[in-house]
Write a structure and sequence with these properties.
Low-confidence stretches: 48-55
Distance between the termini: 94 Å
Oligomer: single chain
Largest sheet: 3 strands, antiparallel
Radius of gyration: 30 Å
Order of helices and strands: EEHEHHHHHHHHHHHHHHH
């Protein structure tokens, strides 16, 4: 049993305020109606005994599961308000449970579902509220939200696959970096003492390595401070959209990694546009929704040109062929076939599935290459240090 604060209108249209005990917001609303009151604001009263509250961050997977649950409840014939009340009670994530209450409250006040979702779940992908809005317009909210959940689940699975494929190489790189740092800090400086002032025959590579080790040991606090400053700066830059776009553009130019990012983006675009068309959107609206899900600045710019050209009356396949060089001729031909046959939505969904499959194959290839590359880089650095030390020691003796 919880306590709810309420504001309501009585029979004389006078605003009254008070508190009421009920199992949930729906039960409180029903009780007030039985009292001949017309409630327009109901909120749960916070408990006074809680001194510390931990806010759990919303993960992408949590949001995808939330959208899936909402779509499932609507598909089962539950009304939107009842579905939100159920999610507010049963959702394991406290932030999303609270968001459900806020969305439900906004809907009672006359707001649209799409607007309420953007307000209370701002981290939700931008195409989800737009698909919800499309579902409201066509009377197919359950299908639109289910399709949005499919897209989110695909994105989450791709992120997890890439994260899993790179986790071990990153682990190797971190451990290798720590070992190299410790070698420069504790091992290399010892050989500087052994060599002493006899440096006439010391090779240049040995001078650089030993000098770096001595410099690190003598300026350890300064170096650690600089590393901390770089870490703080990197975190600050990571929040900048301009920096993220620049980093994304750089990554797209790399071998192996670039094709994975591009194919993943295009697969998501094809799926989103196909979903929008399948839910009754016109081609320009569908293209705009697809553009919202793109992460690549280059692809976003290209798709804006595509949308402009289609608005001028050109065919989608022709414009994509001219402006998005990452689409292969077979894909363009499939889109052309879908346009001429009237099945563009189904064809784009098929293209999306094909590109997603190719992305997974590229991800596996990336995983297979990343581990040996990381090992080779670490081995090369450690080998350079060892060779430099050996050359430094042998330079002290005249073997002739």
């Amino acid at each position: 049993m919880a306590t709810f604060k309420y504001k309501a209108l009585d029979r004389n249209a006078v605003t009254v305020r008070g508190e009421i005990d009920a199992t949930d917001e729906t039960a409180a609303y029903a009780q007030l109606q039985r009292r001949k009151l017309d409630p327009f604001e109901i909120s749960e009263k916070p408990e006074q005994t809680q001194f510390f509250t931990a806010t759990k961050a919303i993960k992408y997977r949590d949001m995808a599961r939330y959208v899936r649950q909402l779509a499932t409840l609507l598909s089962a014939g539950v009304t939107l308000l009842e579905a939100l009340a159920s999610l507010a009670r049963s959702n394991a994530h406290p932030t999303l449970a609270s968001a459900s209450k806020g969305i439900r409250k906004d809907l009672r006040a006359g707001e649209r579902l799409s607007t309420a979702m953007e307000t209370h779940i701002p981290s939700l992908p931008r195409y989800v509220p737009r698909l919800a809005e499309l579902g409201e317009a066509t009377g197919q909210s359950a299908k639109a939200l289910s399709d949005a959940a499919n897209r989110m689940e695909y994105e989450d699975s791709m992120r997890e696959e890439i994260r899993t494929s790179l986790s071990y190489p990153i682990f190797l790189a971190v451990i290798g970096g720590i070992l190299v740092f410790l070698m420069f800090l504790f091992i290399v400086p010892r050989f500087d003492t052994l060599i002493g002032d006899n440096r006439d025959n010391l090779p240049a590579m040995s001078r650089i390595v030993i000098g770096a080790g001595v410099g690190l040991k003598n300026n350890l606090i300064l170096v650690l401070s600089a590393m901390g400053g770089l870490a703080v700066g990197a975190i600050a830059l990571s929040r900048s959209k301009k920096f993220k776009d620049g980093l994304r553009s750089f990554a797209e130019g790399l071998p192996i990694i670039g094709p994975v990012l591009i194919q993943s983006d295009l697969g998501g675009w094809s799926r989103t546009v196909g979903i929008a068309l399948d839910n009754g959107a016109d081609i320009l609206t569908a293209l705009q929704l697809g553009e919202l899900g793109l992460r690549s600045p280059r692809l976003r710019a290209g798709m804006r040109i595509v949308r402009s050209e289609i608005r001028a009356g050109r065919n989608v396949d022709e414009v994509l062929d001219e402006n998005i060089s990452d689409f292969d001729p077979l894909t363009i031909d499939l889109i052309r076939t879908g346009r001429t046959s009237g099945g563009l939505a189904d064809m784009l969904l098929f293209v999306g599935e094909t590109q997603e499959s190719e992305t997974r194959q590229l991800t596996k290839r990336l995983s297979a290459l990343a581990e040996p590359i990381a090992i080779l880089i670490i081995a090369a650095i450690v080998g350079t240090i060892v060779i430099s030390i050996v050359l430094a020691m042998t330079s002290l003796y005249d073997f002739a």
